[in-house]
Write a structure and sequence with these properties.
Elements (H helix, E strand, L loop, with lengths): L14 H12 L8 H9 L4 E4 L8 H9 L3 E5 L3 H13 L4 E4 L5 H13 L4 E4 L1 H4 L2 H8 L3 E6 L21 H5 L5 E5 L4 H10 L6 E4 L7 E7 L4 H12 L4 E5 L3 H13 L4 E4 L5 H13 L4 E4 L12 E6 L6 H8 L9 E7 L1 H13 L4 H19 L4 H8 L12 H4 L4 E3 L1 H13 L6 H8 L5 H6 L15 H13 L3 E4 L5 E4 L4 H4 L6 E3 L4 H6 L13 H21 L3 H4 L2 H10 L4 H5 L6 H16 L2
Parallel strand pairs: 1-6, 1-7, 2-4, 2-5, 3-4, 5-6, 8-13, 9-11, 9-12, 10-11, 12-13
Antiparallel strand pairs: 14-17, 15-16
Helix pairs in contact: 1-3, 2-3, 14-15, 18-19, 19-21, 24-26, 24-28
Length: 615
C-alpha cells in the first residue's frame, strides 16, 4: 500500500482569513511549511494526515481551521495533562476552548456540555474512550462539528511504542459523521506506522503532509557508560544546564527513585515520576514541572507524551531506549521553542541484555517480538555508529540529509576507529571455546587469564583462548563485545541468563576474510570534551540584557501563578528573548513580537512594557 503525497491545493478564498487568524489570535506573522496547505485542505472539507516534528506547529494545523469553519472542532487527545495544557494556552489567546474528562466536577462537566450545545465552543478536547461512548457520539450528532483532529495518531499502531487499543475504534468517526473533515497528526511514525495510521483510521483518501523530521536545534550526544553515570549526569547539568528544566529517563522505577533522590541531595531540584507512584503524587510532580522554572523530572517512559512545555533545555537517558521511535519522541521533548537544547545519553551492554530479557518475557506474539528485536538492534546501531547520528536518525524515517549535521557528538568530536579484526577473532573464538553460554564478564576474565575458581571449575584455564587478550584492558574488551553485538556478530541468549552466542554473520571475520573496524573507547579527556553542549540563545552576553531577561521571567511567573497556569502559557521563552533583543517601546511594537496575539497584548501589554521601559 503506497502512501499518498500531498497534492497541490488551490489557494482558497479563506487563505487571507487564515493568515489574519494566525496574526491576530496567535501572534505569528506567517505560516511554516506546510501549515498553510494543511489548513486549506481542512477548510475546504478534505481529510489530512500530518507528520511534523515536535515543536513544528502541528496544533495550528487544526486550531486555525477550527476558528474558520462553522461549528465546534473535536480534538481527540490521549492524556488529561495534554488537554489541560492546550486548553489553557488557547484560553490565554482568547479562543473558546474546553475539555471534557474525569478531572472535571459534575457541575463543570455540565457547563462544558451547555457551551457545546449553545455553540459557544470553538474546540472541545476529549479522550478517545470518552468520545466513543454511545452517549457522547449521540450528543455530538446533535451539534455542528467543524472537524475531528486525532492527535498522537501513532497510538493506533500495534507495532508502536505507545499503542492504545481504543484508537483502533476511531475509524467509526468517518461512518458516523460523513462529510466532517478529519486530520490525524503525529511527530513519530516510520513508513510502516504511516501505512497503519492510514489503514486503521480510514484515511485512504486523505492528503498526506510529511515535514522534515529534523530538529536542528537539538544536539545529539551518545556515550558509553564509563565509571559513575550519575556523576557524569551531574557534571553535565552543572556545567551546562544549571537552573534549566530537563527530563532524565531511566529504565526502572527503582532507578528513577534513586537518581531523583541523589540529584536532590546534590542541590538539584529533581522529582520522580513513574507508574508505581500514586496518581496524586504523579499529578502533583507533573504540575510542578509544568508550572515551575528549572525543575528536573526523573522518569520512566510513562512520563512525557503530550507534554507541551516548550523550554525543556535537555533530555538525558541513563539507559538505552528500546527503539529509535522512542528515542526520537523522548528527545523531541527538548527545545520545542526552537532554541538550542541537548539530548544526552549514557548506555551500556547491560541495557541491551535487560531490554532483550524484557522482550523475551513479554506475552506478545512472536511476530511482534521479532519486530521489537529489530527496532532495538536499530537503536543499538545508532549508538555504536561512527558517522553523523542525525543522518542515521533521519534515514530511519526515510529522510535524506545530504551533509553531516555538524551538531552531534560524532560530527563535533569524530570517534577514533581501529582495526579490531584480530581482537574480534579472539573474542569470537573465546565465545566458541567456552560453549556459547557465558556472559561478557566471564569471557573477559578468560581472555585476560584471570585466576578464578569458576574458570578452573569449568576447566577453561586449559582452552586456547585463556590469557590471549592481555593487550587490552577489561574496559576495552567490554567495548569490543558490545560492538560485536551491535554489528550482529554475536547474539545475547536472553533465556540463557545473558550468555553470548555466535551468529552466521561472524564467520567471515573468524575465517580472516573480513576486516573489522570498531570505535575506540573514549579516554577521560575525550569524554570531558564531548560534554560540551549547545547553549540556549537566551544566555545573553550583555549584563543589562541578562537583567532584563530575568525581570521579564519574574513578571511572567508572577502572572502565571496568579492565574494558576504554566509560565509558558503566558509567553514562550522565544517571545521574551525577542523582547530583550528588540526592546519594544509601544503597544504597536510589542504586537510585532512573535507569540503576542491580540488577547495577550490586551491582557499583558502594559505590564510587560512597564518592565521594558524600566530596563
Amino acid at each position: 500500500m503506497s502512501i499518498p503525497s500531498a497534492t497541490p491545493v488551490a489557494t482558497s478564498p479563506t487563505s487571507q482569513e487564515a493568515l489574519d487568524v494566525l496574526r491576530s489570535v496567535f501572534g505569528y506573522e506567517s505560516f511554516r511549511e506546510p501549515q498553510g496547505e494543511v489548513i486549506s485542505t481542512l477548510v475546504s472539507g478534505h481529510d489530512a494526515l500530518v507528520l511534523m516534528p515536535t515543536g513544528g506547529g502541528k496544533s495550528l494545523c487544526y486550531q486555525v481551521p477550527a476558528l474558520l469553519r462553522p461549528g465546534t472542532a473535536v480534538v481527540v487527545s490521549p492524556l488529561i495533562s495534554l488537554m489541560q495544557d492546550q486548553v489553557a494556552a488557547l484560553t490565554q489567546a482568547g479562543v473558546r476552548a474546553a475539555f471534557l474528562n474525569s478531572s472535571l466536577s459534575a457541575q463543570d462537566a455540565r457547563e462544558v456540555l451547555r457551551r457545546l450545545h449553545d455553540g459557544s465552543l470553538d474546540l472541545l478536547y476529549l479522550a478517545p474512550e470518552r468520545l466513543l461512548q454511545p452517549a457522547t457520539l449521540e450528543r455530538l450528532a446533535g451539534v455542528e462539528i467543524s472537524l475531528f483532529a486525532i492527535d498522537e495518531a501513532h497510538c493506533v499502531s500495534q507495532w508502536g511504542h505507545d499503542f492504545r487499543p481504543e484508537y483502533l475504534q476511531l475509524s467509526a468517526l468517518a461512518e458516523r459523521f460523513p462529510g466532517v473533515p478529519r486530520i490525524a497528526l503525529t511527530a513519530t511514525a516510520d513508513e510502516r506506522t504511516r501505512r497503519e495510521i492510514i489503514e486503521r483510521l480510514g484515511l485512504t483518501a486523505a492528503r498526506c503532509f510529511i515535514s522534515s523530521f529534523d530538529r536542528p536545534n537539538i544536539r545529539y550526544m551518545i556515550r558509553q557508560s564509563g565509571g559513575s553515570v550519575r556523576n557524569e549526569l551531574l557534571a553535565f547539568i552543572r556545567e551546562h544546564h544549571a537552573g534549566d528544566a530537563g527530563i532524565v529517563y531511566c529504565l526502572s522505577r527503582k532507578r528513577v527513585d534513586e537518581v531523583a533522590s541523589w540529584l536532590a541531595a546534590q542541590g538539584c531540584e529533581a522529582l520522580p515520576y513513574h507508574a508505581g507512584m500514586s496518581a496524586g503524587e504523579r499529578a502533583s510532580n507533573q504540575a510542578r514541572f509544568l508550572n515551575e522554572e528549572g525543575l528536573i523530572i526523573v522518569a520512566t517512559i510513562a512520563f512525557g507524551m503530550g507534554i507541551d512545555k516548550p523550554n525543556v533545555r535537555f533530555v538525558a537517558h541513563l539507559n538505552l531506549p528500546k527503539s529509535i521511535e522512542a528515542y526520537y519522541q523522548e528527545t523531541g521533548r527538548a527545545g520545542r521553542d526552537g532554541l538550542p537544547a541537548n539530548a544526552w545519553m549514557s548506555y551500556g551492554l547491560q541495557d541491551v541484555i535487560t531490554l532483550r530479557q524484557m522482550m523475551s518475557a513479554s506475552e506478545a506474539e512472536e511476530t511482534h517480538k521479532r519486530v521489537e528485536r529489530h527496532k532495538l538492534d536499530a537503536m543499538l546501531g545508532l549508538c555504536e555508529m561512527t558517522t553523523c547520528r542525525r543522518q542515521a536518525l533521519l534515514g530511519y524515517f526515510s529522510e535524506t540529509l545530504s551533509e553531516p549535521c555538524g551538531n552531534c557528538d560524532t560530527c563535533l568530536w569524530p570517534p577514533q576507529v581501529w582495526d579490531a579484526t584480530e581482537a574480534a577473532r579472539k573474542a569470537l573464538s573465546c565465545v566458541h571455546r567456552t560453549g556459547q553460554r557465558f556472559g561478557v564478564t566471564y569471557l573477559v576474565d578468560v581472555l585476560l587469564g584471570k585466576d578464578d575458581e569458576r574458570i578452573r571449575r569449568f576447566g577453561h584455564e586449559q582452552i586456547s583462548t585463556f590469557g590471549i587478550g592481555t593487550e587490552h584492558s577489561a574496559t576495552e574488551w567490554r567495548a569490543i563485545f558490545r560492538q560485536l553485538i551491535a554489528r550482529g556478530l554475536l547474539d545475547v541468549d536472553v533465556e540463557g541468563h545473558g550468555g553470548l552466542r555466535l551468529t552466521d554473520a561472524c564467520r567471515p571475520v573468524l575465517r580472516g576474510e573480513q576486516t573489522l573496524w570498531l570505535r575506540r573507547e573514549a579516554t577521560p579527556a575525550r569524554r570531558k570534551a564531548s560534554r560540551r553542549t549547545a547553549r540556549r540563545d537566551t544566555a545573553f552576553t550583555d549584563p543589562a540584557d541578562n537583567a532584563l531577561w530575568e525581570a521579564l521571567r519574574e513578571t511572567r511567573l508572577r502572572l502565571a501563578r496568579e492565574q494558576g497556569v504554566p509560565p509558558y502559557v503566558v509567553f514562550h521563552d522565544a517571545s521574551l528573548a525577542a523582547m530583550v533583543e528588540q526592546r519594544p517601546g509601544s503597544m504597536a511594537e510589542l504586537a510585532d513580537i512573535p507569540g503576542v496575539g491580540a488577547a495577550k497584548l490586551e491582557a499583558y501589554g502594559e505590564t510587560f512594557l512597564g518592565v521594558l521601559r524600566g530596563a
